[in-house]
Design brief:
single chain; 210 residues; alpha/beta; 2 domains; 5 strands; 44% helix; elongated
Length: 210
């Protein structure tokens, strides 16, 4: 039985690219799991993963620095070997939140992002009227109504933009990604939208999703 359990764990994590979103001290009260269980998971399994990317909200948002973040890991007894396997990336925040908070369906946000990437548009405030016309027509051809998206964004001071995070995510392998963290309606949801816009398949690690 013990051998089977170890084999099952090995086959689940071996060679995966683990992406952790916002499991950081500022949000610890809302985790829904014990921090020590998360640290134990990293200590016991870090060698199995192809990569472990720690996405976090950092100093630009008045939050933790990478140095302070590492201290928090050490204070919670992360081993030196596990620490060496972590890649930290200050991802920023709220690049898609205007659509999310305005009840635009995530599928439509994904289509907008794809169009922006394909046409080298960094933020929606740069989309001109004729470009909106072209976008609406393009998606109308496949039966998708993007008029609510246009109505929200065309004349708004708010926007969505293509974050540098997208380039970081492109370095991962589609179908090999294991995603966890939070919050499910905030930063984690933004990462999910980003991965979908890049057509990158992933699985969720529910144990540490909050």
């Amino acid at each position: 039985m013990k051998y089977f359990k170890l084999y099952e764990q090995y086959s689940q994590y071996q060679g995966k690219d683990l992406v952790v979103v916002d499991i950081q001290p500022e949000y610890e009260g809302g985790f829904g799991f014990a921090t020590e269980d998360y640290i134990e998971f990293l200590n016991e399994n870090h060698e199995m993963f192809n990569s472990i990317t720690i996405l976090y909200n950092g100093e630009d948002l008045g939050m933790i620095s990478e140095y302070e973040y590492k201290d928090w890991f050490y204070e919670n007894e992360l081993t030196e070997e596990a620490m060496d396997s972590l890649e930290f990336y200050d991802k920023g925040y709220a690049f898609f939140r205007f659509c999310m908070d305005s009840d635009i369906e995530d599928e439509l946000t994904v289509l907008l992002i794809k169009y922006m990437i394909a046409n080298d548009i960094n933020e929606t405030r740069d989309i001109e009227e004729d470009t909106w016309d072209e976008l609406i027509a393009q998606y109308n051809e496949i039966g998708v109504d993007m008029n609510d998206v246009r109505e929200l964004l065309e004349h708004s001071d708010d926007m969505i933009n293509i974050p540098d995070l997208m380039e970081e995510l492109k370095g991962l392998r589609s179908g090999n990604i294991l995603l966890t963290g939070g919050h499910t309606e905030e930063c984690l949801r933004e990462v999910v939208i980003a991965l979908n816009a890049l057509d990158m398949d992933f699985d969720m690690l529910d144990e540490f999703t909050y």
